[in-house]
Amino acid sequence: MSSSSLHPLERAILRAFLALPDRETHLPLPEIARRSGLDPAQVQMGVEWLKAKSFLSEKVDRLETVLTVTEGGEEALTAGLPEERIMDALSGGPREMKEIRELFPDSTIASKAVGALKESGTIRIGEGGLVYRNGELPEGIKRLRTLLGTIAESSLPVTLEGLSPEDQGLLEQYQRRRGKGKGLLRFDERATKSCCLSPDCSLDIKELEATESLLGAVTPEMLMNKSWAGKSFRAYSLETPPPRPSTGHLHPYREFLEEVRSHLVRLGFAEMTGSLVEPEFWNMDALFIPQTHPARNIHDIYLLSEPRTASDTAEWPLEAVARTHEGREPPTSTRGWRQGFDPGQSRRLLMRSQGTALSARTMAENPEVPGKYFAIARCFRHDQVDATHAVDFFQAEGIVLEETASFRTLLGLLALLAREIAGVDKVHYKPAYFPFTEPSVELHAHHPVLGWMELGGAGLFRPEVTHPLGVDVPVIAWGMGIDRMAMFRLGLSDIRDLFTGDLSTLAQMTRSEERSRAWKSGMKVAMEESP
Amino acid sequence: MPTLEGHFDDLLGLLHQKVTPQEMDRTLDRVKGEWKSYDPGSRRFKVELNDTNRPDLWSVEGIARQLRGGSALHQKPYDFLEKASARDRKGGAPDIRIDPSVASVRPFLGGFCARGSHLGDEGLTQLIGTQERLSELFGRKRADVAIGVYPLARLAFPLTYRTADPEGTRFIPLGAEESLTLRDIVSTHPKGQAYGDLVTPHAFWPILVDGRGEVLSFPPVINARALGEVTPQDEELFVEATGFDAARLLLVLNILAANLADRGFVIEPLLSEGDNFRMVAPAFPEITVFVPEGLPSRVLGSERDPADFVETLSSFGYPQFLRREENGEAGWEVLSPFYRDDLLGAVDVVEDYLVAKGYDTFEPALPKDFTRGRPSPRQKAEFRLRTALLAMGFQELLSNILTGEPLVTERLGRERNDLVRIDNPASLQFAVVRPTLLSGLLASEARSSRFPYPHKIFEIGEAMRLGPSLSGGERPVQDLWLLSGMLSHPQASVSELLGILEMVLERMDRTLSLRSADLPPYLPGRCGVYENGKGETVGTVGEVHPATLDLWGIRMPTVCFEVDLEGLLLS
Questions:
Q1: Which residues on chain B are in Cβ contact (under 8 Å) with A411?
Q2: Residue B481 included in any domain
Q3: Do B33 and B98 reside in the same domain of the chain?
Q4: CATH code at B555?
Q5: pTM, to two decimals
Q6: Of the residues B47, B69, B91, which one is the last residue of a structural domain?
Q7: Chain A residue whose CA is closest to B367
Q8: Do B457 and B559 share a domain, yes or no?
């Protein structure tokens, strides 16, 4: 506890205390401000620092309860207290309980006020449940109304303790009856504090003044005229909590998506992009999904109301796709789906339901062979939104066109993606079914914490997909549910939080992201270090 | 995805091999199934089947059959297939007469008898479950295929499938106490309410009656209680399926016949016949696919022994491989098992070969060819914009693209006639595609009043609107690529935001001219539009009107901007 590191604010405050005849004198904060010549915010700050350094100690002089009128109270001031309103209503003759309840948005307000009035004998309930006026408005209610008005209009804070004991009792009783959140007044506790020199503080005015001549901040003038030469600089206290700048950050989910993107680019994939709206042709038909497939009914996809259908059909290989669905050669040797193909359905517009639509378009547009393409595409599924279903979400998708692409190449690629993107080495290839690939496989990965989890689906595109689009080399197709990976990474259990606008949730996600990164590298280090 | 529940001992009884519940998930790889849950107390399990094209696997019997290698239980062949050809050759009077009146309503019905065993409680539970899955999923909620099962003992053959007058025909349906007309069933019976729509467009509705004229059922809705209630003790059953596609009916009947045969029943095929329809069911549909000899090696990416291909698939249920040549390449004409109709081409057979070998037995290889990786040009631009905004302390947001209409209209004080609307929204909260990102920013601010100020947030993302009318009068959808930003703190001002925008434009090396213009949600006199060199509006900026802030519940001065990035970067 050296006085050489004191800040000028701290010095000003300490000087005020050391000037007192008695080292044990307590000064309230406003008094410190007056004596030190600082403003209240500076005093607040300086006192906190000095407390932290054990120069000052603080005591609570008294607790006060500050009263403020709530929204409900404001309303009562304009529309009247429930008791007043009931009495008013009854002045025209008896009413039914039902009518009284209808005066208020919440029937419990009515029953509580009626109960209180009945208790005070101001009203009575007669035959058939009719409510009669039986006297004048109780004095307590009138007084309450007056108090509310005084508190609302007072320019200085009104404290509970400053009121007469009768008024205090009235307010407390009324507040209790109303229950939490529905009250007329808010009760906020406020402490009045004062400080004195701490018994641990041995500083005296001489010592304080002796360190006064130390230099503070380095200034341009000081550097220019070298006035610092031969003098000492005041030590700064590095423990003082520093002011924090407001900062910006990439969205943590975006950061994850960018990481996925950069992995894929590094692995030789070129990015595909496209419209959020696709006709069923590219989203489904070109992928050989039968027109009667359950994933195509209106409970699974979002259709548009205007325009309902696509108009650029002239550029589509519609005929070749239709023939393939129906099982007619050429261009594909297949039994097809053995059902009629409706070009009208192909034209229906929907919100893209899978990123594979982009792969279909790419294959139809003279892709490079050999070529690798990927997309991180926003997709839409018709689900009730809950903790595991989002209205829109991202999917990572990719294709590999290569003369010698094979099922083994597909397995190798999946293992590579699992390692690069998800950071897992242990995988299992589970046979799967997708209408557009054969053979098809699901990639399951072993996560050290979560156990086996599905990372994505993949396969070799069926000839029924590639031939009508004009591709005659084998094509590997893969897709990954990156939302789930991201949720784990960002410490989320609710998928809706991926798209939250709540800035504190975002800040939390950013921190979880860092922690999971640290954890991951920590794991790696631990594994590498183990013998 | 079909899911089914079963008893582990029932499965083991059908499997005839030892397997533990712990091994089941991997074992189910061969049927593309997932072991969802197992309760050691009750020994009941749940399985999810992922192959939506193989309804034969949607039953405990079917799973067990594939795991056994496709053979009949106890190594007996499915001998009813020969009986079917015999019944077919014999001809003569049909067992089930198809009346011409059903042609336009629900034209086909096929069926068979099963005798000499009994289902027991678990067997009946499984049969009902399978019937449900086949008619709901494969039969598309009974529209394409509906199935009926009856105790055989009370039936008098031949049966007749015909239509009847909805008002004049009555019987006691399952689950009811009194006799109802067909019309009553459709309006009051739960099954009638669920499936009645399949027949109500027609004047006359289908019924199945026996030789004495008694009603068996009202396909595809409900069975009669007197003739159509099956118990676990019944030793003789009649099974039928109705629908529109003979091949689908036969497949369903083949699957059910194979399942009952595996439970010890002797299957007796029946002949259904009408003017334009003749079917013996179950029967071998004789579906074949040509597989070129080199294809398995090409698909897998390494040399395979042709003999191994034939041998492996023979123990996966494939009954026959005939050598032949097609387009100059030697190969096999492969016959599909009678309970499957999912082989569309050669690759499907090859996949079964790979599944039978086990995917984990193959050595993964990496793609060999070098290719050039690259992000989309748009991503590169977004990266520069993001870093510029981050450097000025902005936090990035990501919001949903579907939103509620009031949020992008009333809440911004804007009227729009260019919204892209969803025809079948799941909820009004997500009924339009966002045309702007401003609502997302304001919603974020409204939720974040407790987060330390100042708030600086931005979003870059996709949005949509309707474009100007085409020659045909139709308005096409237009994809938008937008950047929006918001500042919110006690001293937030337009000039602070304009300074930031100038820095962003400088970073992108673009110049735009700013012109005062009043537009919501901004305060008149404190907002403007950005125009590019061609005089097109590419952005808006301004201080948000207190009335708008009030609608969002925001109690902090707030300024916003939005820029159309396509318009900006092309300028």
A1: 359, 362, 364-365
A2: yes
A3: no
A4: 3.30.930.10
A5: 0.81
A6: B69
A7: A409
A8: yes
Question: Which residue segment(s) compose the domain that B332 sits in?
Answer: 288-360
Q: Are residues B330 and B478 in the same domain?
A: no
Report pLDDT for B429: 92
Residue of chain B minimizing CA distance to A432: B32
Are the Cβ atoms of A412 and B365 closer than 8 angstroms?
yes
Q: List, in order, residues 6 or more apart from B521 with CB less than 8 Å away.
A: B411, B412, B413, B414, B438, B542, B544, B545, B548, B560
B chain contacts of residue A462, beta-carbon cutoff 8 Å = 344-345, 347
Are residues B276 and B300 both part of a single domain? no
- Shortest alpha-carbon distance between residue A290 and chain B (Å): 11
Give pLDDT tens digits for A98-136.
Answer: 888 888 877 777 888 888 888 888 888 887 778 888 888
How many residue pairs bridge chain A and chain B with CB atoms within 8 Å of each other?
Answer: 278
Tell me if A439 and B371 make a contact (CB, 8 A cut-off): no
Residue reference for tokens 């919001």: B399
What's residue B176's pLDDT? 92
Q: For residue B212, give the CATH number of its domain.
A: 3.50.40.10
Q: Do B360 and A371 touch (CB under 8 A)?
A: no
Lowest mean pLDDT of A291-300, B135-144, B406-415, name the range: A291-300
Nearest-neighbour CA in chain A from B235: distance (Å)? 37
What Cα–Cα distance (Å) separates residue A431 from each residue in A39, A407, B34?
A: 74, 12, 10
Q: Quick one: B564 and B418 in the same domain?
A: yes
Q: Which residues pair with B331 in a beta bridge?
A: B292, B324
Total of domains in chain B: 4
What's the confidence (pLDDT) of residue A170?
82
pLDDT digits (tens, 9 = 90+) for B402-435: 999 999 999 999 999 999 999 999 899 999 999 9
| Complex ipTM > 0.90 | yes
The secondary structure of B233-245 as a DSSP string is: T--EEEEEEEES-
Instruction: Give the CA angle between residues A422, A425, A429 to the nearest 5°.
Output: 90
Residue B180 belongs to what H/E stretch? strand B180-181
Contact flag B348-A438 (C-beta cutoff 8 Å): yes
Contacts of A412 in chain B (CB under 8 A): 364-367
The token pair at A156 is: 């200085």
Residue B142 shares a structural domain with residue B223: yes
Distance from CA of A59 to the nearest CA of B (A): 29
pLDDT of residue B31: 96
The answer to whether residue B369 sits within a structural domain is: no
Is B366 a member of any domain?
no
B261 and B385 inside one domain: no
Examine the fold and report which residue of B69, B85, B101 is the final residue of a domain before the chain moves on: B69
For residues A443 and A455, the answer to whether their CB atoms sit within 8 Å is yes
Nearest to B373 among A265, A405, A460 (CB): A265
Residue A335 and residue B32: Cβ atoms within 8 Å? Answer: no
B368 part of a folded domain:
no
- Which of chain A's residues have a Cβ under 8 Å away from the Cβ of B374? 265, 270-271
Indicate if the pLDDT at residue A181 is higher than 80.
no
Q: What is the CA radius of gyration of chain B?
A: 34
- Tens of pLDDT along B193-242? 999 999 999 999 999 999 999 999 999 999 999 999 999 999 999 999 99
Q: Are residues B83 and B205 in the same domain?
A: yes
* CATH number of the domain that residue B324 is part of: 3.30.56.10
Burial (Cβ within 10 Å: 0-12, 13-18, ≥19) of residue B17: exposed
